[in-house]
Amino acid sequence: MSFHVFKRYLFLTVLIAAFIIGDHSLIPVSAQTQTLTFPAVADTYDSYVTPAATFGTLATLAVDGSPITNSFLRFTVSGLLPDQAVSRAELRVYANSSTSESLHAGAVADNSWSETTLNYNTAPAIGGVISSASPITAGTWITWDVTSYVPGNGTYSLALTTAGATAVSFSSRESGANAPQLVLTLSTSSGTPTPTTTPDSTSHILLVAGDICRYDDGGVDYSPNCKKTGDLIRSVIAANPGAMVQTAGDNVNNEDAPASYDDQYEDVYGPNWGSFLSVTHAAIGNHDYLPPSGAAPYFAYYGSGAGTAPGGYYSYNIGGSWHVIVLNTMCSQVGGCGPGSAQYNWLKNDLAANPGKCILAAWHHPRFSSGQFGGFTISADWWDLLYQYKADIVVNGHNHNYERFNLVDPSEQAASDGIREFLAGTGGAPGPVYTYAEHPLDPNEAVRNQTGLYGVLQLTLNSSSYSWKFLPAAGYTFTDSGTTDCHSAAQGSPTPSPTPTNTPTHTPTPTSTITPTSTQTPTPTPTKTSTPTQTPTPTSTKTATPTHTPTPTPTATSGPIQVPDPFRVYLPMIYH
């Protein structure tokens, strides 16, 4: 053996020994990324022409160089974990007018200003320019790179200025739909190699909304709202064959008799959402139990897309990477929701039988919410289990608004391995809207709509990540979007419990109304002043619904260990 060959073997031997005894400095560290959007908590502008005037309550911001007019914005960044680094920070503001001149984003060190008292005379000093943007085009989001200014958690004030002579208008946070945003892209180093899996490489679209069709609310027909969201879903499915739909409960929203009746799924839901019934998976809500026959019409209409009656909890797979679990928060109807109940035991077994997959769970009443009825503790035990098994997403309805949370643990505290909750009670049933001042955001809640809204949450489920985008129905403009890695496959799962039974037996109890275990109260039943006479409308022919049974779980495979060139060694991964 030549000396050069001996040196090569010696080098490889040292590398192998270093790996075995734990020195993995040459092995790449797995980096996970996610995007978070923080709305402005204060914004206003000043004016040289009227130096004592305040503009903090207006729905617009203004920037001009002659006469001098500067806009001020403040953001609060919270919930970032110690192992999360800001890889990019962007200030995004919606333009109402245009200019070819540059606008500058500058640093403001003083965070003590108030949007209700700031004027030209009292405005804080503006520091150096962080970045510039041009041209400014009306009807678009304008972006400034402020990464150097936003390193992590904290409060940050920024100013928009220009030397140009063209006044530019932007939407302020009071505009609601187009409020200014601070968008952070975060990277998280796990510190250990991430095992690879064998998922499919296709992206899958899942469209989510709850609280869908309602024809009677004090004599008012609100079914045109669910036609708008139904039209939106039809357009997405037409452009993305294979897209699927998951409802979040209260699929029909009429109150108890006489407004509710057994055929309302065929008469009200069918003409508006029935055309994509064959790709719809349903979750049950409290209003779905209100027809004279209880939940029987719900199960009859959705068939296997609603799971097995009377439980209504089931699971299905999307592609090779995602496992979707649908649960029933009408606990009194299915023998309970907590430990020892049939539903809880089924959930525990189902999670154990599907290791290594990204997990999405859907049910009606939200665990956390700053909406009308707040959150409900009836699902607290489910959240504990889902967190234990590294679930990624929970989607809910009940409160008729849109909300998105940061990754949180069972105590609603920020956690890099936490679950992201979405509320999409925006399918078409009317409901109250609250500003942040009226109903402050929950801890670690990122956003809630502050204006009237109907629309659909679009989830794009990839092999190891997901992205979200709220799609507003015709006539509405609010949107919200982001992306993050799926962490359940990388983190592994607890020791499996016994194999689940996919068609559990349920023992319903005689009561039929849900009682939230939190301090929140159930949805009140309004007094009806009149009830419209419904003429049944023909629905589209129902086609076969996919069978909702778990498919085999992909098996984790070994990956190559990267070492510096000119040599590369391939060893089996010893991490799981």
Question: What would you say this structure looks like, in words?
Answer:
The strands form five sheets. This protein has a seven-stranded mixed beta sheet, with no helix packed on it. It is 13% helix and 24% strand. It is built from seven helices and 25 strands. Mean pLDDT is 80; it is low at 3-8, 14-30, 190-199 and 492-576. The protein has helices spanning 3-21, 223-239, 264-273, 296-302, 342-352, 380-388, 488-491, and strands at 31-39, 42-45, 60-65, 68-69, 71-77, 84-94, 103-108, 129-133, 141-145, 154-161, 168-171, 181-189, 204-209, 244-247, 280-281, 314-318, 322-326, 358-362, 393-396, 402-405, 420-424, 445-448, 455-461, 465-472, 481-485. The longest helix has 19 residues, at 3-21. It is globular and about 70 Å long. The protein has three domains: 1-27 and 561-576, no CATH class; 31-189, Jelly Rolls, CATH 2.60.120; 204-491, 4-Layer Sandwich (Purple Acid Phosphatase, chain A, domain 2), CATH 3.60.21. Helix 2 (223-239) packs across helix 3 (264-273). It is α+β, with helices and mostly antiparallel strands and 576 residues long.
Helix content: 10-25%
CATH class categorisation of the largest domain: Alpha Beta
Stretches where pLDDT is under 50 for at least 5 consecutive residues are: 3-8, 14-30, 190-199, 492-576
Outline type: globular
How confident overall, as mean pLDDT? Answer: 80
Which features characterize this protein?
6-stranded mixed β-sheet; 7 helices; Jelly Rolls; Purple Acid Phosphatase, chain A, domain 2; alpha+beta; 576 residues
